[in-house]
Amino acid sequence: MTIEAAPPLATDVAALRDLESEAIEIIREVVAEFDRPAMLFSGGKDSAIVLHLARKALWPAPLPITLLHVDTGHNLPEVIEFRDRVVAEAGVNLVVARVEEWIADGRLQERPDGTRNPLQTVPLLDTIAEHRFDALLGGARRDEDRARAKERIFSIRDAFGGWDPRRQRPELWHIYNGRHAAGEHTRVFPISNWTELDVWRYIEAEDVPLPSIYFAHERPVFERDGMLLTPGPWGGPRAAETLSTRSVRYRTVGDGSCTGAVESEASTVAQVIEEVTVSRLTERGATRADDRLSEAAMEDRKREGYF
Amino acid sequence: MSTTTLSTVSQHAPLRLVVAGSVDDGKSTLVGRLLHDSKSILADQYDAVESASRSRGATEFDLALLTDGLRAEREQGITIDVAYRYFKTDRRSFILADTPGHVQYTRNTVTGASTADAAVVLVDVRNGASAQTRRHSALLSLLRVRHVVFAVNKMDAVDWSQDRFEQLQAELHEIARGVGLGDVVAVPVSALTGEGVVRAAPDWYLGRPLLALLEELDTELEDTAEPFRMPVQLVIRPRTAQYPDYRGLAGRVASGRVQVGDVVHASPSGTASTVIAIDTPTGPAEVAVAGQSVTIRLAEELDIARGEVLTTDDPIAVTRVLDAVVTWMGDAPSAARQRVLVKAGTKTVRAMLGPVTDIWDVSELRWTPSSAPLQLNDIGRCTVQLAEDVAIDEYRRLRGTGAFVVVDPATGATLAACMSGADLGALVP
Q1: Considering only CA atoms, which of B299, B338, B32 is closest in space to residue B191?
Q2: B301 with B336, same domain?
Q3: Residue B91 and residue B216: Cα distance in Å, rounded?
Q4: Claim to verify: residue B300 and residue B383 sit in the same structural domain
């Protein structure tokens, strides 16, 4: 299959530059107003964009932000390799919270279904408390989920990390209010207003490096609940599941137990853009089992402190 | 970056749109319709809503379920909080704030409207203009939203009666005049069937459908005739081996334009120097325009910190007393002499509220003298005393540098959204 990507329209590039300026403004507010800011960095495309924007926001000064990765132990090796390479190149400090350490010392229990995605919340909150981070930048976008569509760019979390959608602060003009009581922290989402396609167009315009799993490659996969999963420590293939090698790519990066690949021939950014443009499935709907658990899966996890 | 590219940036900015209106006027359905008909709904979202509609016993696809993102919203069938939506047409991209209609959520309407270039106010043709229609129109006027479009909804329920539409249109123009809105447009639509939204409306309506209208509106960022303003967010000073002497003032241009060679003034400090370089996210540039995040380098090393506002030849006011129109958002009422924080642009200062002098009467559409404390969602006027000088514009003249928020110093809660200036234009009887 050959895919000829259309060049971005003038409107696309202009809209991107407006979103870029908005994100840089938000990141600069965080650096100016908080004492101990950190950035959630999973090695995924949204993290990569936020890091790229943060480096631009502070250029030519070094980035005064710690990166934080909650590692479920179920990540694909290509993603971890990418994470460490980017961190080394950017010369930033990385803190890794390993879910396995929490399981090992009994603070968390492995779940019967093998997924560690919901287990990330406790290590995240413990690590925020330990390092006394007062602001956490993240790459979440409002187009990902309808509960996310309700969240403010500056989002206050209580001492338990919880999000209360009924108690959100009004967000007025471009005046961001991140003040909070001791023990609380503020989560900040600079790319709230970006869509999946905006992210890909920006990656193209700025040549932002990504993990190789975002591009089509041959991989042995098995099918579960309509998703293509890679065999790994999270289990599978089970007896009734068969392994086959297919040309796939990932649309999101997450815990291997619940993040699926999609069949794809798109091996360049331009081809991915073409594919995303015509896709009839949302990014999370296509590849994230955790969001399919119930009608309010994301909202429920966010109330508990999940990112 | 060349200046040609910069002008392209400002001409095609996404339209930031707020959708307001009373409960049950069909806001969520309209938003769902815009997303659906602009093909922004993907198959899995569609399937999820279809099955949710069925499980709720609905016989038809419930567009509102696409947008009501919270469990409580879906259970009660109402919108509680602002949700943001994104959609694109061939001509433009849109960032849409879908705001709640209940009176108790007025603060969320202000949230959505404060950054909006345009507003769509839904009105149910069967009920006509409601108290909320007036309230939202007044808020949009106060907040100086550039374009206001009334979408007269549920036209299918009155057999697309031209008489009914024209009657309501006249009433809406009357309200618009009363609250000081400039040119407003009324469009007949049915969010349920989609007529008048993306598809054409009936023969008797000579205007364009709602979406076509929205595609052509200009945005605040396109207004380069405004005076230059840039609140300083950060002083960037790397002190690295590669950039030992770099010193730049980082910020986002709130209005107007600045170019290398311009003399810029910093307020409130009152210092001035010449721009020698502008660094943008895409490299050095000769010019920076409204909306751009940039770093400006000056000929001299002046004492300019976060909280200063850069201007060129048109000066900004520097003051310790603000006259303000206040929309109160605190759960507890305001109090005279209440100690608060004021955040204006990038500057936060200690402040004290003065007595309330007037309150906006939503049903009478006018200001009435009152010294009563402001309750949640009230709109009033008062003065605010500041502990330090602040550089601020009149909001009616410059939206970007004329607004401020009042913050509770103990909890950090946002207590009020405020517009600086005593001149309220047409809102004064």
Answers
A1: B32
A2: no
A3: 9
A4: no
Q: CATH number, domain at B258?
A: 2.40.30.10
Residues B54 and B72 in one domain: yes
Rounded Cα distance, B426 and B429, in Å: 7
Token pair for residue B278?
């502008």
Q: Please check whether residue B326 lies inside any domain of the structure.
A: yes
Q: Strand, helix or coil at B271?
A: strand
pLDDT in tens, B78-97: 666 778 888 888 888 899 98
For residues B139 and B101, state if they share a domain.
yes
Per-residue model confidence as pLDDT tens digits over B352-387 = 999 999 998 877 778 899 999 999 989 899 999 999
**Which stretch of B124-133, B160-169, B312-321 has the lowest confidence by average pLDDT?**
B124-133
Peptide bond into B268 cis (omega under 30): yes
Containing structural domain, residue B344: 317-420
Surface of A (116-145) touching B: CB under 8 A: 142-143, 145
* Residue B425 lies inside a defined structural domain of this protein: no
The residue type of A251 is: R
Domains and CATH numbers, chain A: 10-198+296-304 (3.40.50.620), 210-293 (no CATH)
Q: Supply the CATH number for residue B56's domain.
A: 3.40.50.300
Residues of A in contact with B327 (CB under 8 A): none
The more confidently predicted of residues B205 and A5 is B205
Length of chain A: 307
Is pLDDT larger for residue A86 or for residue A9?
A86
Give B-chain residues touching A24 at CB under 8 angstroms.
Answer: 252, 281, 293
- The torsion angle over the Cα atoms of residues A296, A302, A303 and A304, rounded to 10 degrees, is 120
Q: How far is CA B307 from the centre of its chain?
A: 22
Task: Please give the distance of CA B254 from its chain centroid, rounded to a whole number.
Answer: 14
Domain annotation covers residue B220: no
A60 in contact with B, Cβ within 8 Å: yes
Among B289, B292, B403, smallest CA distance to A22 is for: B292
Same domain assignment for residues B394 and B301: no
Exposure class string for B39-58: b at 16+ Cβ within 10 A, else e: ebbeebbeebbeebbeeeee
Assembly ipTM? 0.89
Q: Please tell me the distance from the alpha carbon of residue B78 to that of residue B70, in angstroms, as a whole number.
A: 10
Q: Please indicate, yes or no, if residue B369 is contained in any of the structural domains.
A: yes
Q: B95 and B243 share a domain?
A: no
Dump pLDDT digits (tens) for A258-278.
788 888 999 999 999 988 887
Judge: B81–A166 Cβ closer than 8 Å, yes or no.
yes
Domain count within chain B = 3
Same domain, B81 and B121: yes
Name the residue in chain A with its Cα closest to that of B283: A56
Contact yes or no for B176/B184 (Cβ under 8 A): yes
Interchain contact, B84 vs A17, CB within 8 Å:
no
Tell me the nearest-neighbour CA distance from A34 into chain B, angstroms.
12
Same domain, B115 and B254: no
